[in-house]
Amino acid sequence: MKDNYDFLVIGGGPGGAIAARTAASEGYSVLLVEKRPAIGAPVRCAEGIGKEALAEFIKPDERWISAEIKRAELVAPDGVSMIVGSEMAGSKVGYILDRKFFDRELVWQAAAAGAEVMVKTRATAPIMTDGKVKGAVVDFCGQKKKVHADITIAADGVESKFSRWCGIDTAVPVREIMSSAQYLMTDIDIDPATTVFYLGNKVAPEGYLWVFPKGERTANVGVGISGKKSGPGHRAKDYLGRFVAEKFPDGKTIECVVGGVSVCRPLPETVANGLMIVGDAARVVDPMTGGGIYNAMFTGNLAVQVGAKALSAGDPSRESLMAYDQGWRASPVGKTISRNWHIKEKFITMSDAKLNTIIHSARAIDLGDFSTIALIKEIMKRNPLLLADLAGLMAAIK
Amino acid sequence: MAIVSKSGRIPAISPKKRLWVLPANTLGMLLIHRDICGYCGCCVSVCPEGSLELIDAYLESDDRCTGCGLCAKVCPVGALEVRDEG
Fold first, then answer.
1. Partners of residue A160 in chain B, C-beta under 8 Å
2. Residue A185: which domain range?
3. Domain count, chain A
4. Residue of B40, B50, B78 with shortest CB distance to A259
5. How far apart are CA A190 and CA A196, in angstroms?
């Protein structure tokens, strides 16, 4: 470990790893620090990602793909279900990853490109000079060391503290944290090519319950509920326990995962002097799906591209780095987050009866397009009576 | 339950080493049940004071905690508890 780098990346998830890989492959010196002793573990993710989205950053490899997904099933509160996507669409729509290996592969690639990596190394404070972030104090096995960097990238996930120490309020509103629990279950009857989403206030208030296949007879079975709806006796683990007892009574749980997923709007500003915030730490999770892997990789990559330009100009100031903030907001990622936040705000107000109506109306559709927006448009086309409810929403998703 | 200094603060060895905290403007005392905690960081993300931190496989709280209980509410497994002083 040196004393000085072009980039210091805090966090070894997909956002941090792609940032480090991009920086190293463009010839910049970069150190990635991960506080956990291992990359990729413990998993805190349902592990789903779109096929095309993934391919933007890495060639798919069966070593870290658990399942290929061809369709999704949405189950209404009354149990009626609809299928989205099909073989007729011509391509497989997504993957369920094995994050333990996937995250490790990304960090391997960063290291192979020339990035330095340190695990079990935690950033404990920013180095601040004249209101500028100049790196971080890192702690490795009780030894504290100052690591200076021209640009520090906070990729420290949902429990992000680094940007907070730099004076940026990253607190997620309680109603917009998805309090989540998941079992990796095996010996259960599932379709290994279908992701299943259960909706409804009894199953997952203001969230959803998922069954994401991890291969034959194995799946991530999890639930996310609004923090607002969580409390003693009705926590995510309680909802999950009830579902599993009823649906998969003979399944075996081989891993237990808990987590928080932010479905709020992104941070108002994702840069400061010498600092860029990416991924879950920037709150760029898709508010409708809770998906964050691609958005983390996208922002991680873009941050370094903009940061590199700023370094060439010798000016890693907030103004100079602002092109990153503007860039991701103007990108499809930023626009989707913004639009899906509005859709989510509408959907969480819907009663079970309304959700039933919507899914009943849409169940016969063979929707090749897997996107949220295509689904919403189709649902609205088939539910003219919902238009009054959804007028504001229509405007939002135009 | 514990010795409290005149300021209302626990005279702890280090603010980072506490199992529980009792700040001056106490609403209650935060207990972290480490045996239940899944060290996921959900609570950290909602803490309005920035008091909680997920170190590695353990959660810590410092003296900025006001005992507001938001963390205890959102915890997926119920590992956090705010108790009244006494």
1. 44-45
2. 71-96+178-262
3. 3
4. B40
5. 9
Return the CATH number at B60.
3.30.70.20
In order of A48, A101, A285, the CA distances from A105 in angstroms are 17, 6, 22
- Alpha helices by DSSP H, listed for chain B, are 42-46, 70-74
Distance CA B41, CA A296 (A): 17
**In which domain, by residue range, is B55 found?**
15-83
Cα B47 to Cα A161, A303, B9, B25, B37, distances in angstroms: 11, 27, 19, 16, 16
- Cβ within 8 Å, pair A180-B76: yes
Q: Decide if A14 contacts A103 (C-beta within 8 A).
A: yes
- Cβ contact (<8 Å) for B78 and A177? no
List chain A residues with CB under 8 Å of B42: 158-159, 177, 179-180, 227, 258-260
Q: Do B40 and A44 touch (CB under 8 A)?
A: yes
Contact B76 A179 (CB under 8 A): yes
Total number of domains in chain B: 1
Could you list the pLDDT tens digit for every one of the 398 residues in chain A?
A: 899 999 999 999 999 999 999 999 999 999 999 999 999 999 999 999 999 999 999 999 999 999 999 989 999 999 999 888 755 444 568 999 999 999 999 999 999 999 999 999 999 999 999 999 999 999 998 899 999 999 999 999 999 999 999 999 999 999 999 999 999 999 999 999 999 999 999 999 999 999 999 999 999 999 999 999 999 999 999 999 999 999 999 999 999 999 999 999 999 999 999 999 999 999 999 999 999 999 999 999 999 999 999 999 999 999 999 999 999 999 999 999 999 999 999 999 999 999 998 888 877 666 666 566 777 777 777 776 666 556 555 555 55
The residues, ordered by sequence, that sit 6+ positions from A263 with a Cβ below 8 Å of its Cβ are: A176, A177, A178, A285, A287, A288, A290, A341, A344
- When CB atoms are compared, the residue of B46, B55, B76 closest to A237 is B76
Among candidates A159, A174, A232 on the partner chain, residue whose Cβ is nearest the Cβ of B54: A159
DSSP 8-state secondary structure symbol assigned to residue A266:
P
Between CA A226 and CA A229 the distance in angstroms is 5
Assess if residue B52 is contained within a domain.
yes
Does one domain contain both A125 and A224? no
pTM score, whole prediction: 0.91
Can you tell me the ipTM of this complex? 0.92
B2 is a domain residue: no
Which of B14, B17, B31, B42 to probe by mutation at the A interface, max A CB count within 10 Å?
B42
Nearest residue on chain B to A157, alpha-carbon basis: B41
Question: How far B8 CA lies from chain A's nearest CA (Å)?
Answer: 25
Radius of gyration of chain B (CA): 12
Does B27 map to a domain?
Answer: yes
* Residue of chain A whose Cα is closest to the Cα of B16: A124
Q: Is residue B33 included in any domain, yes or no?
A: yes
Interface of B with A (CB under 8 A): 38-48, 50, 53-56, 70, 73-78
